[in-house]
Amino acid sequence: MNGMIAQTIQLALAPVFVLVAIASIMNPLSTRLGRVVDRSRELQRLYKETTGEEHDDIVREARSLDLRIAIIGRAFLLLVLSGLFIGTTVVLLFLEEFAHIGVTGVAAGAFIIAVSLLMWALLLFLRETREATRVLRIPEMYLERERDL
Disulfide engineering: 64 pairs with which of 20, 79, 84, 135, CB 3.0-4.6 Å? Predict the structure, then answer.
């Protein structure tokens, strides 16, 4: 019996490492969300104080930030769902071993879903970073490309 417990724990370690990866991805996402929210609050303050082209720039950036907030929110949702499926995988592995319920296929399916959700979240993370770099490019006038430095 003790050998079965040790073997099941070893088998469950791989999914648990995926949980660590999920938590590691959530950390920078959380930081990015905080920065986006802070910037959006600043833009909301500036919104009332601007007109013309400057106002249009504020609105364009606010739209981008709104999109980024939505993307990060979806990525968080997918990461949490992935974590829940990882937990389900671990529970199913233990049920298989100790209750002798034939759920190996279900456990494998839960793990595949978890990894798929994780990959989807990573694609959203990539999309959010691409949106951030698209909008936050340095205007050409500040780069003075005509000068050799």
Answer: 135
